[in-house]
Amino acid sequence: MEGMLLKTSVNSFICHPQAGQQRKNRCDVNKQVAPHSSFTSTTITHSLTSRPASSQFNRCSMRRAAGVVHAAVQTGETVDMSAFDGITIYATDGQPVKFSELWDHRNGKAIVAFLRHFGCPFCWEFAAALREAKPKFDAAGFKLITIGVGPSSKAQVLSEKLPFPADCLYADPDRKAYDALGLYHGVARTWLNPASMQIFTRLDKVADAVKGWNRDVMPDNTAATLQQGGVYVFEGSKVLYARKDESTGDHSKIDDILGSCCSTVMA
């Protein structure tokens, strides 16, 4: 059953009709990336399908998918930030940081972007887009906070190889902040959701972003590949923008994030 699911999920991602001519896409991404990086089209499959062989995988993923949401955050809400008091994440140098202290909940402004994990090639692409938009975020008075699943050592690799500003990047190895915000996690979200097909419209950007990528940055706990990300824009404790990624590669549009920031500047 697991083998059938794996085969079906890979085919649905690589060979889905919405992806166009799948063989051409695979060749294109190899031509674009292979001279610069250990990333190839095969890595797309690896990124989506890596998982423990242990029978504990099913129990773990089901337990995570059925986890309790501490704070269902939606656009326009004012959040009780005490829900996050017990969550500790880590800077790229390994220093612990309380999630609730990342920005001033009375007057601070923050864009909190969650990646899947530090080895996800599509998250490298999204991180590159966030990096390029950072001067605009800064001009609007918003602090960029980017969080990924995995240890600080892998966050540091992304920071150095992409590159990405280390002071904007944090690691959440236990996915506690993800759980608190109710971000999606599970097999179907990772492997079977058609929202991932949009990846094939951005292969040139992925190719450019992953030139420094290598397999060493993939999660040690491969169950982490089932985690999805999202973006939240805060003004104090008020949520100006909230979007959970539906599936792998289904990232927020930078223009939408900027729109939520700029609306506060113009108001």
From TrEMBL:
It comes from the Eukaryota. PANTHER family: PTHR28630, THIOREDOXIN SUPERFAMILY PROTEIN (PTHR28630:SF23). This is Thioredoxin domain-containing protein. The gene is LOC112278275.
